[in-house]
Amino acid sequence: NNENSSLVEEFRAGKTKMSSDFESANARIVDLEAQVQALERAKHTAESHLTEAQETIDEDSRAKSSLNAKVRSLEGEVLRLNEALDDEEQSKTESAKQMGSVNTQGGDLKRQKEG
């Protein structure tokens, strides 16, 4: 009987230990599940921020491309205006030369008439 009692006590002690271990493991599982949910929320938030950042980068890239196209267009316009200015300066210089020549001829004609 004493032996049976001892076996029953061992069984009860083992059962109590297993029950305690089970509760501890179950609490750990609940804690880990909560951590997984927190990580999933953090992942979702990070993905949202990444998507927003990518959209901003795409918008900035489109704006930069547009500005570059405008700059190239304006550079071309500046080049055309500089060429037109050079042509006008050459024309002005040529006109001044012709005016000088006409004045010289006019002076020569006036002297011939007077002389």
Walkthrough of the structure:
With 115 residues, the chain is mainly alpha-helical. Helices cover 98% and strands 0% of the residues. The protein contains 1 helix and no strands. The termini are far apart.
Spell out the blueprint of helices and strands.
Layout: H1 2-114
Which key features would you list for this structure?
mainly alpha, 1 helix, single chain, 115 residues, 0% strand
Tell me which oligomeric state these chains represent: single chain
What's the pLDDT, averaged over the residues?
A: 95
Q: What structural category do the secondary elements indicate?
A: mainly alpha
Distance between the termini: 166 Å
The total beta strand count reads 0
Percentage of residues in strands: under 5%
Structure summary:
With 115 residues, the protein is mainly alpha-helical. It is 98% helix and 0% strand.
